[in-house]
Amino acid sequence: MSDQNLSAAERGVARYDVPTRMRDDVRLLAGLLGTIIKETGGQELLDDVENLRQLAIKGHGDPEGLAEASAVVDGLSLDRAVLVARAFTCYFHLINLAEEYHRVRSLRRGEREVSGEHILESIPLAFTELAEEVGAADALAALQTLEFRPVLTAHPTEARRRGVSRALRRISDLLDARDLIHPHGTALAENTRLLLAEIDVLWLTAPLRVNKPTPIEEVKSAIGVFEQTLFDTFPGVYRRIDDWLQGEEAGRARPSVKPFVHLGSWIGGDRDGNPNVLPETTRTAAQMMSDTVLTALERETALLSRKFTVSAADVPASPELAAMWSKQRQMSEEKWNAAAAVSPQEPHRGTLIMIGHRIGATRDRDADLAYPNVEALEDDLLTVQNSLLAAGAPRLAFGSLQKLIWQVQTFGFHLAELEMRQHSQVHAEALAEIDEHGIDSPELSPRTQEVLDTFRALAWVQRRFGLRAARRFIVSFTQSAQHLADVYRLNELVFPDPEDRPVVDAIPLFETFNDLENSVTILDELITQPQVIERLAANRRRIEVMLGYSDSSKDVGPVSATLALHSAQSRIAKWAQANHLELTLFHGRGGSLGRGGGPANRALLAQPPRSVDGRFKLTEQGEVILARYGDPDIATRHIEQVGAAMLTASSPSLEFRNAVAKERFSALAAELDASSRRRFLSLVQADGFAAWFASVTPLEEIGMLNVGSRPAKRGLSVNSLADLRAIPWVFSWAQARINLAGWFGLGTALRDYCEAHEDGFEQLKVAYQEWPLLNTLIENMEMSIAKTDERIARLYLALGDRDDLAAQVLDELELTREWVLKITGNAWPLERRRVLGRAVQLRSPYIDVLSLLQVRALRGLRLGQFAEGDDDDAAGWQHLLLLTVHGVSAGLQNTG
User: Fold this and answer.
1) pLDDT band at 715, cuts 50/70/90?
2) What does the alpha-carbon distance between residue 569 and residue 572 come to, in Å, rounded to a whole number?
3) What CA–CA distances, in Å, run from 753 to 74, 757, 822, 875?
4) CA distance linking residue 362 with residue 290, whole number of Å
5) CA 837, 842, 848, 850 torsion: positive or negative?
6) Cα 475 to chain center, whole Å?
């Protein structure tokens, strides 16, 4: 596979927009994939792949090209169609890898836009700008109180197998090594051979999982990201910022930066709709995470101790360090003697060796040597640090030792806080059973017993690993304050003795449009509950509220949902301020635009005044986890961008700008809301819509993908959208190349506003330029529109029997594209976002091939329309369909 057959015009544009190094990587990897395809499948397979690729490219400028490609696809045997689908899927994986690696290359070489002395969207720039407004002292206080809380979830949106991910990581490492190889040396040939071997592994690795992953396997995947990047990346970010703040004193002065990234996880704790997450799952997940972080801390301490070969004569121990060394001897004479033997007259090294032993003993549950809690470990490390400082060795005190201290402060003995989640109705039904039969009754249903055991599991985690390990309990579909009171009552029923009772913070999750509208009323009642009053007194009046982006979008459409979420955030922030509460808004954002996705830093800058205040918490789901945290350089850049946006979002100037814009454009927003909602509801509330939706998208087949332990539907029916989870709603429309969940209703809203106001277009242009919320909304929907394809969409819509609904979709798609381009001033979607826009355009022809294969399989499975000579093996066509779902996801770079 190569790019040799692009037209001259296409090659010119591509070379202008795509960096040369990245284009070279793409050409290299595509060529090597072609070699592997030829070796394993023969020249005829490679010819079929190349022929389809050329026809697909032709089809983007010539309608006959798509028809020709469709005819070729229809003529493929089932076995050949499977191989072609795998070839294009592998191609997408390699292209995605090349793009990611080029981004890493650019980050390492500092090839980023700058403003004055600083890189754009960086913490130094944001700090400097904030200091100019509020003064250096207040800016530093803001930096030191930042809280960024990414929460990893096991929502089924990562279609890629772990085996595929590992193969791609090895290929990326080889590309990295290739950058340093002399172009004419023998090492280059060796690198090429290794690349071919790894691409061969990628080609031969079955792309689909045979079984659904268990929750414990999902925990392992998250732990893999921790081990691969997060353990070193988080302290690395703190070090970069502190080095900039300290200037020439960097490494010699006590750090100004405090750890501000606090990792959370729902994996093993989220049981809402997932019968596979049991109390024992929660215990096992917590134990696995603790074992992992304690092993990492033990290893880091051992490595550090080997560096501390400083003698007592040059760096004498402080009285406090000498006392600690003596106390360590009493804990284990054997280990102390061994430590003393390898570190004679090196007290700092000896104490660090013993600290490492104690960390290992904590993991192994050795009561004599184990630390009672993470605070005791931190105290020991600070004792070593202060001793070095007192002895005149500041660089030792604030070098690698400081990194270890930051790791302890960030990850504790728990790695990530394990958060529980359950549906409000489950708790209500459990309490009804308990009230009827009693808590110890054998007549309690298994589900109610599981609810009670969940609180016992939470208590076990908290006792063993500390309060930071687990205390938050998210209540899905919170529709009254009673739903939160139910959590506290269940906790009291399970643990009648307050001494045994775990600390629990019940957190409301407002998901539907109506719940968002009623949120403040519910919160008003919540803070009158005795248990909440007690918690607020104990935690300095800190409160957390979660907002769901998915169901509200499915309820009223993406435009109305975005505006409703913004309004709810504004009202909740004002409510918190009036009640003297320190609010953290928890954003339940998905990876896709239809579920609140998009760049987190840009979303932060569009938040209402006082809704951030230096605190930002969000879910990181599925493919987003690897995309943002799978590579240390990209993870570092992401954290810096979010941190910078948090600082900027709290600046008086931006808060004033957002407040003025919200007030100025509130009437405009109300009209966009009403118009877009009417349009959206006219579609989704039409008779038979749910069944039609299932017929024109691969909805049913998505449920067969083994991408997560959680079921795709809340029930068995596809006759009601209420029972359909937001992920398959978004995923299905993306597969059909329609992306309806990300834009439907916007075109009508923009057109109606202009028709209702003489200067409506000018007002919209001004609002787009001056109101960050509308700017972000329109640009996110522009991105969603860019990934649509009307030609392919028509093929999917033809699978249904409702021309009226299909016409609504296509008319609104055309209208939305027209008005988005008018407002943005672009000639085509993403014109000004050159790298992203070109990446989408370059992928589209290749995705077309997979879409044609998918439509062919759907026609056969749904309508029984097989071509003459087709194998009518339903299982085989279903396998092909699932392969194309996987491939299109890789090409679009998102699922749900």
Assistant:
1) very low
2) 5
3) 45, 6, 14, 50
4) 10
5) negative
6) 21
Report the Cα–Cα distance between both ends of the chain, in Å, rounded.
29
Can you tell me which residue has the tokens 């600690």? 324
Cα-based angle 559, 563, 565 (whole degrees, multiple of 5): 115
DSSP assigned state of 317:
P
Q: Which pLDDT score, from 0 to 100, does residue 43 have?
A: 96
Distance separating alpha carbons of residues 272 and 266, to the nearest angstrom: 10
Would you say how long the chain is, in residues? Answer: 896
pLDDT at site 723: 67
Q: Whose CA is closest to 794, among 76, 70, 92?
A: 70
Rounded to an integer, what distance in angstroms lies between the CA atom of residue 599 and that of residue 783? 11
Is residue 488 within a helix (H) or strand (E), and if so which, with residue range?
helix 481-494
Tell whether the torsion through CA atoms of 639, 640, 642 and 646 is positive or negative. positive
Question: Which tens digits make up the pLDDT trace of 467-522?
Answer: 999 999 999 999 999 999 999 999 999 999 999 999 999 999 999 899 999 999 99
Give residue 869's region: left, alpha or beta (phi > 0; psi -120 to 50).
left
What region, left, alpha or beta, does residue 510 occupy, with left being phi > 0 and alpha being psi -120 to 50 degrees? Answer: beta
SS3 content of the chain, % helix, strand, coil (to 5): 65, 5, 25
586: helix, coil or strand? strand
Q: Can you list the alpha helix ranges (DSSP code H) found in 787-873?
A: 790-797, 803-824, 834-863
Q: Average pLDDT of the chain? A: 91
What values do phi and psi take at 617, rounded to 5? Answer: -130, 135
886 is catalytic: no
Task: State how far the Cα of 607 lies from the Cα of 620, in Å rounded to an integer.
Answer: 19
Structure tokens at 602: 């840009």
Closest CA to 657 of 537, 553, 772: 772
CA atoms within 13 A on the CB side of 440: 2
Joined tokens for residue 111: 């090839």
Contact 88, 95 (CB under 8 A): no
pLDDT per residue as tens digits for the range 310-361? 999 999 999 999 999 999 999 999 999 999 999 999 999 999 999 999 999 9
Contact between residue 611 and residue 884 where contact means Cβ atoms under 8 Å apart: no
For residues 478 and 509, the answer to whether their CB atoms sit within 8 Å is: yes
Q: What is the pTM of this model?
A: 0.91
Catalytic one among 58, 155, 262, 357?
A: 155
Report d(CA 695, CA 302) in Å as an integer.
59
Catalytic residue among 554, 617, 638, 662: 554
Task: Provide the 8-state DSSP code for 579.
Answer: T
Q: How far apart are CA 476 and CA 588, in angstroms?
A: 11
Q: Which residues of 19-40 are buried (b: 16+ CB within 10 A; e: fewer)?
A: eeebbebbebbbebbbbbbeee
Q: Is 554 tagged catalytic? A: yes
CA dist., res. 200 & res. 222, Å (int)? 27
CB 733 within 8 A of CB 697: yes
Report how far residue 707's alpha carbon sits from residue 605's, in angstroms, rounded to the nearest whole number. Answer: 33
Tell the residue number behind the tokens 């990326």, with chain if given.
172
Beta strands in 311-432 (DSSP E): 417-418, 420-423
Going by C-alpha positions, the residue among 628, 848, 842 that lies closest to residue 735 is 848
pLDDT exceeding 70 applies to what percent of the chain? 93
Under a CB-based contact definition with an 8 Å cutoff, are residues 867 and 852 in contact? no
From the list 554, 551, 541, the residue with the least C-alpha distance to 510 is: 551
Q: Report the pLDDT value the prediction gives residue 117, as an integer from 0 to 100.
A: 63
The DSSP letter of residue 430 is H
**Which residue reads 């579909």 in tokens?**
477
**Rounded distance, CA 650 to CA 138, Å?**
11
- Structural element, H or E, at residue 546: strand 542-548
Closest among 258, 336, 339 to 306, alpha carbons compared: 339
